[in-house]
Specification:
disordered N terminus, four-stranded antiparallel β-sheet, 357 residues, globular, single chain, 45% strand, 2 helices, mainly beta, five-stranded mixed β-sheet
Amino acid sequence: MQNRASGAPDAVVAALVYLLASPLAGCSSNALPAAGSVAPNDPAGEPAAARAFGSAALPDASVKKKKATPLVYLAGSFDSSSDVLIYDANAAKGTQSPIGSITTGIDGPQGMATDKNGNLYVANNYANTVTVYAPGQTKPHQTIADGLNGPVDVKVDAFGNVYVANAPAAGGQNYIVKYSQGSQYESGVWLMPAGSLITGIALLNPTVAGETSVFGLSAVQQSSGFWRGGVFACVLKNTNCTSLYGYDMGLTGGIAVARSSTPKKEVGFLAIDKYLGGLYYFRGSTLEARWVTGGTPIFVTMNAKDTAYFVSIDLFNESEVSGAFEFSFPGNKPLVEFQSDALRPTGVAVYPSGDYH
């Protein structure tokens, strides 16, 4: 059932902070709700350090940690194999080759994310799982499967809650599942409007307990066979995601939030349009810039400082090498090419995470 906002999208998004103020009660992390029966909520007020994630507790703030190496992750497939390649994000400008790879647990990887502790999350579309890798490890220490069907993207908020977008291969209704921190069982579900294909998700207010919501891109196939894309939002007090007016794109891909909305500022975000062969930079519903990358861009993420973005691009050209490409933001100057001559690229993620704007 279509459920659309009645006003301009920037006004709707700016109001999200108020809509999210009161998380829905009665949503337990041990419950297994039917799709659409329980709206996701946030464990507001519970200190993040008091909760364990998987088999490892969050680090003691009193223990001095060695500064981690900034990393770039690029997912992809080639023939029957799937990999996540690892690159040094501190590499000099120019062309860079991978310094490592992950293959265990990877099966048709799509969107990826990192959390504040450096864990990597990979949405495995073929296996219907999200696999989680501790820093420096190539085997998953956690696998999430409950409630997943065709996962295409994953994001993690600052409190360890996990959000997974699903696009069932059989053409069923798309949906987003939330997992409370440390749980492998769904704690809530958002349903997409019928006929909408989720192509990427991001988070609004990911560092504010009880006010985090999902902000994403979706597309609907037209009678002509072409796709028409737009923006949607999923708030905590509603089991249905809402399509937002004012955005008119082609076949969309990934999305990255550069700045969450506040009562005084509109959301800033990057949106991939595969028909454009590039991406748009929006502030609210205002199109600030249109950047052509060439090839087919797939996913995009910001860096932690909000000074650069990384986009995975399939160039479809034997004379050019696909991979992840870093550009300055908002200047859009090419910086580094993270090459992959053996993968058709899909997801891209960085550490420190760029998902907390």
